[in-house]
Structure prediction request, 784 residues.
Amino acid sequence: MTITTPQSETELVVLPGRGKGRRRTTDAAPRRSGLLQFGHWWWALPGILLVLAIHYVATAAGGVFAFTNWSGIGAFDWIGVDNFVKIFQDPSKLLALWNTLFLAFGSVILVNVIGLAIALGLNRGLKTRYALRVLFFMPVVLSPLAVSYIWKFIFDFNGPLNTFLRAIGLDSLTKAWTGDPTFAIWTILIVIVWQQTGFAMVIYMAGLAGVPVEIEEAAAIDGANLMQRFWHVTLPAIRPAVAIATTLGLVNGLRIFDQIMALTGTGPAGATATLATEVYKQAFTLGNFGYGAALALVLTAIILVFAVIQQRVTRSNPED
Amino acid sequence: MSGIQSTYVQIRHIAVMLREQQAAPEPPTTKSERLDMTQQRRSRIVRTGILAATTAGALILAGCSGSTGGGSTDTQKDTNEFSLAFGISNDVTTGYQLLAEQYMEENPDVTITINALPGETYAQTIRTQLQSGNASDVFVSSPGTGQAFSVVTLAEAGLVEPLGDTATSLIPSGSEAQFIVDGKTYGQALDIAFVGNVFNTTPGIEYPADFTGILDTCKSVAADGKSLFVVAGSVGANAGIMAQTIAATRVYAETPDWDAQRVAGEVTFADTQGWKDTLEAIVDMYDAGCFQAGVEGAGFDAITNGLTQGTSISMFGPSGTATEINKAADGHANFVVEAFPAAKTSDKQFAIASSTYAYSIAANSKNKVAAQKFLDWMAEPEQSKSFADDQGTLPVSGLDELDLTGTVYEPVEDVLKSGDYLPIPNSSWPNAAVYDALGAGVQGLFTGQKTVDQVLADMDAAWG
Prediction:
């Protein structure tokens, strides 16, 4: 093994794998006189410090309030983990936790299944596929609030949905959809799925564009039917797309806020509250800043845990 | 935001709707109404969101270094200038601005910098500004506790300046605890608002005199496909106003100091029969068809639509609404103010009336002398009257001598003159969570998610 002394720490960072074999060292030699010579990792220090100070330290400082009873004004006391005990003893907060997970996983599953189905359908062949892609993607670019208010109107007691039900003689099914303890959460899920499916569709279409037609044809010649081709050829080929679409979907799903505030305002009687809406309500509406910070910390922890799990499940190479 | 404030935002809406209706003889299309509502609400939520984000940063940066102090009025000179902050909900010029302009006309050497802030985020903005020491010298505050810009809350945090005897003399009877902390007055009441039913007399229905009458009238109105009341069931503030209006007769008529007893821990919501009666009355009214269909999911737009289209006859809210709607309807509808009836005609009639807003001076203001002079001028009966007229409320002084015949207040003249009223109860509750529990609880009663006892237990739990 050739022993090479790194010229600078930058090289250690930007040239990984040095010293693994002969070829590497000879490769690296001409680069030494290149631009990298000028770069030192500590040049990024001001930027790194700013990011740390503004992004991480400020957030962490906010997290500190989770262990206080600060009301957002005046003095506060340290109360340890009381806020967290209170969260997990309060049925309404557990309901909010359940709603958070329901909306996140419900939207991820529906958005990705429907988005993938549409992407497959519009991938090749269909003549109108360009127009249809635009149509399906359109909701994504709209403001979630604007979309939610249109849907709130649709779900309104005197809105089009109930008018339609009455018109076809289903009067018994009419109800105040966003004010119904059972259906209110579903109205939110429908709006989210309606709006976000186009986004998943675009990611899957990008993934599908990279699947070589030849392999599919080869599989077809080998006698694989449509389902087999999908499961064994297409799906493995678009694993990175699945990983991205589900990660983004899950993280966004756990943070859903606008749609709930616009459609139900967390009602009826808190039936559609999530951790995100509870954070807002406690910290900014009710002035329980410490308690709100504790809820935010719980939400952060949940997002972190599920993002890590989800990354492990969907990574392309299990040996990574 | 308290019920009254939210409803005030709504008043402007109803007024706009009615003006539109007048301009075009045909009823407004549903689409345009919706767009109007959507824009207003969207901007409110967006603004609240932006504020939430910026406030989060500001809170962290400010830490708990709440700035207090500033010199006392005695050591300051008259600077002949000061700034004035108030909340606005749309482009309509409010009494705050009109009177400030009048003051500048009468005193040409005085300059007032007017800061009209978005009404929806006013409370948070003022609180943040006070904490960081850059609030306007004079600003609109809310009597009592429980809100971000409440007089007592701000006084206890040392963010507002004690005011003189004039302010003390203007405090409406029964509202002392909402203005005074440790013997000093921190807010100057601007007007008196009555909270009850805003009732349309045009359909020719007589306002019931007792609760049985309410239920009977509800049934007969419902038989015509209309509703006696329209309530924004999904908006806690409106549902809460209704509950408090009813509670005035069931709880506070017999025990005006109920809140003080609750603070002392002598009573609870759950063990007070009056509160049970209040919520049971709401359930009875729901069963009798008193509310518009779909009340459990209704927003403020339901009130706007119900009252303008005539499908509902009455709403719960502040008296200013009646004046506003009448102004806009220009004779097409006649709304008056009614007090919700007691259970029986023999029971004592009792209602809610108090100052909705006050003026306070920031503790670190450098223009206290000029600011105090302005407040003294505002306290004069002439200004008090013109402010109240603009707001559709009652002047803060000289109420006893005022002749209310022919005004929207005629039906409640006796209640007002006899002093059988108290400030809106939630303004003296210790935190906003209690009122939130009441509002959400009423919606839960509509949907069957909660029982009367559960709602009251939630309120006790929120009391802390």
The CA atoms of residues 146 and 262 of chain A lie 9 Å apart.
